[in-house]
Amino acid sequence: MPELPEVEMSKRYLDSTSLHQRISNVEVHDSYVLERISARELGRRLRGRRFQKSERHGKHLFVRAGDELWLRLHFGMTGALEYLKHDKVAPKTARVIFRFSNSCALAFDDQRKFGEVGLIENVEKFLRTRGLGPDALEISFPGFKAILSKHRGATKAILLNQQLIAGIGNLYADEILFRARMHPASEAARLRDKDLARLFRATRQVLAKAIALKTDFNRLPKSWLLTRREKRGRCPRCGRALQSATIGGRTSWFCAHCQKRI
DNA sequence: CTAGATGTTAAGGT
DNA sequence: CACCTTAACATCTA
To answer: What percent of chain A has pLDDT over 70?
Structure first.
């Protein structure tokens, strides 16, 4: 479930496993995930280089491999990284494998192939071109407020719009709205300062807590909606049945009693 | 067998 | 222009 917290975990995983090793080869097992680059070119540009550091923005991960050379990873719906120690065999759905000269490797695994692997020259330029908004954990309250109040539409749709705020996906958006006790369909432009402050606090709290718990769903607090986000799920706060509705094109789960429409 | 699933984008409508 | 909905992508599971 690669939303901001999961991508942050992938960043830390990559940082702790895959830096400073000489890239000896790049195997592309399915070029469907390659973005604007051929398998041959990807290998040609990366071979002989080392991953130096990584940066995350929203759901994107950038790995520096040289001057003006960054690997860009997006995890789509099912993307994940797996470090393969000493020729350990890659998972069947590994789409790209970065082989290191120490016989270890980093696999980009992606069952559903909605992920993206590409090379870019400049992170800032990429963010601009892609039109991504500020990272959900970097944005300030004034910035958050400005974005929400300037746009019409359901609050949840704004939270999900990567061009406005980058990193929040469908699951965490539901949790954020639950913690802020706000109905997902509340008109964003109508939120008052105290509502915005609540929503901002919930955003930071949910994302930070998810990271602190290493995005392990089994360890999420019992008070969270996420663990009950399913048919016949009940509100952890009041015990009433949760409802689902399509908002912003995605399925939303919420408690109609605790989350009032503003 | 069918519907739906964590992400993104294009197309068409209001 | 700003917003909405729907469909599409690939693949698995309930």
So the answer is: 100
Residue type, A44: R
- Residue A77 CA, nucleotide C8 C1', distance (Å): 15
Question: In this structure, is the dihedral angle defined by the CA atoms of residues A202, A205, A208 and A210, taken in order, positive or negative?
Answer: negative
Whether nucleic acid strand C comes within 7 Å of the CB of A151, the answer is yes
Q: Which CATH superfamily, name and number, covers A4-130?
A: MutM-like, N-terminal (3.20.190.10)
Strand B proximal residues, A:75-94, Cβ < 7 Å: 76-78
The ranges of chain A annotated as CATH 1.10.8.50 are 141-254
Give the CATH class of A141-254.
mainly alpha
A17's CB contacts (< 8 A; 6+ apart) are: A83, A106
A45: which residues sit within 8 A by CB, 6+ positions away?
A: A65, A69, A119
Query: What pLDDT is recorded for position A1?
Result: 67
Residue A190 contacts strand C, CB under 7 A: no
Contact A121, A130 (CB under 8 A): no
Residues recorded for chain A: 262
pLDDT, tens digit (0-9, with 9 covering 90-100), for A81-133: 999 999 899 999 999 999 999 999 999 999 999 999 999 999 999 999 999 99
Residue A50, beta-bridge partner list: A22
